[in-house]
Amino acid sequence: MVDLDAPVKLQERTVVGKGLGNLRSEGFVPAVIHNHGQPSVHVMGSELELGSIYKAAGKHHPLQLQIGSQKYLALIKDAHFNPAKRRLQHIVFQAINQNEKVEAEVPIHLEGEIPAEKVGLMILHQLDHVEIEALPRDLPDELKVDATKLVELQDKITVADLQVPEGVTVLTEPEHPIAMVVETKAQISEEEEAAEAAAAEAEGEEGAEEAGGTGAGEAESGGKEPNDQKSKE
Q1: 56 near 80, Cβ under 8 Å?
Q2: pLDDT over 50 at 226, yes or no
Q3: Which of 151, 140, 148, 145 is nearest to 178 (CA)?
Q4: What is the CA radius of gyration of the chain?
Q5: Domain tally for the chain?
Q6: Who's near 188: CB < 8 A, 6+ residues apart?
Q7: At residue 63, does pLDDT exceed 50?
Q8: Of 91, 177, 199, 210, which one's alpha carbon is 20 to 30 angstroms from that of 144?
Q9: Do 124 and 87 reside in the same domain of the chain?
Q10: Reduced to 3 DSSP states, what percent helix, strand and coil does the chain have, rounded to the nearest 5?
Q11: Which residues contact 5 (CB under 8 A, 6 or more apart)?
C-alpha cells in the first residue's frame, strides 16, 4: 500500500525533447513542477513508483515532493499515458501553499445498495468526479452520495446531493446529474415489441370492422333487390 504522507523522492533532469524516450526506456517518468509563477522545475522519477502514487493520490491528495534538499507541497494536476500501452508518460505537479485554498478534482463514491439494480433496472453514471476548492489540509479523498435514492425509472442524484464536509466548496454545477435510473436494452426492446403488437392488433381490429361494414351493406342491398324486381314485374 502506498504511503501518501511519505516524501516522494524525485531527481532533477536536464533531458528534454527527443531524449525523453531514452529516459522512459530506462524506467523513468519525466515530470515538471509548476511553482507559483517561478521557473518550472524539471524532474523525473521511477515509473513504477509514480504510477502507484498517481493511482492512490489522484488529483486531490497533497504530496510532499523532495528533490535533493528542496521540498515542495504539491498536487498532481495532470498525468499523460501512452494510449496504446497505457503506461505513464508524463506528470505535471502544481506546488501549493498549506494556508492557501486550492482547486482539486475529487472522485465521487456512491454509498449504499441501489434498489433499482435489484429489480433489473440500469444505472447510467454521468459523473465520477467533481471540482472542489479547499485548503490542502481539508481536501477529501472522495465525496459520498446516498445511492439508495435510486429506486424507480428517472430517479437521479445530482451534485447537490453530495455529502460535503465543512471547509470544502464544490465548484461543479449543483444541477449536474451524477447517476440516473434508466431502462435496460432488453426492457426497451420488450416495450417496442409490445407497442408493435398493440399497433398490429389495432390494425387488425380496424380491418375487421371495415370488412364487417362492407358485408352488412351488401346484405342490405341484397335483401332489397328482389322486392324492387318484383315491383317492376
Answers
A1: no
A2: no
A3: 145
A4: 34
A5: 2
A6: none
A7: yes
A8: 91
A9: no
A10: 35, 35, 30
A11: 64
- Residue type (1 letter), 212: G
pLDDT of residue 218: 46
Asked, for residue 217, whether it belongs to a domain, the answer is no
- Report long-range pairs for 11-16 (Cβ below 8 Å, ≥24 apart): 11/43, 11/44, 11/45, 11/67, 12/41, 12/42, 12/43, 12/67, 12/68, 13/42, 13/43, 13/44, 14/42, 15/44, 16/42
Q: What is the overall mean pLDDT for the chain?
A: 85
What is the residue range of 20's domain?
A: 8-96
What Cα–Cα distance (Å) separates residue 80 from each residue in 30, 72, 198? 10, 21, 53
**Whole-angstrom distance, CA of residue 78 vs CA of residue 54:** 10
Grid coordinates belonging to 56? 492512490
Strand order across the 177-182 sheet = 122-125, 177-182, 156-158
Of all residues in the chain, the percent with pLDDT exceeding 90 is 66
Query: Same domain, yes or no, for 110 and 43?
Result: no
CA distance 120 to 137: 42
- Note the pLDDT of residue 203: 62
**pLDDT tens string 71-130:** 999 999 999 998 888 899 999 999 999 999 999 999 999 999 999 999 989 999 999 999
Amino acid, res. 36: H
Could you tell me the CATH number of the domain that includes residue 49?
2.40.240.10
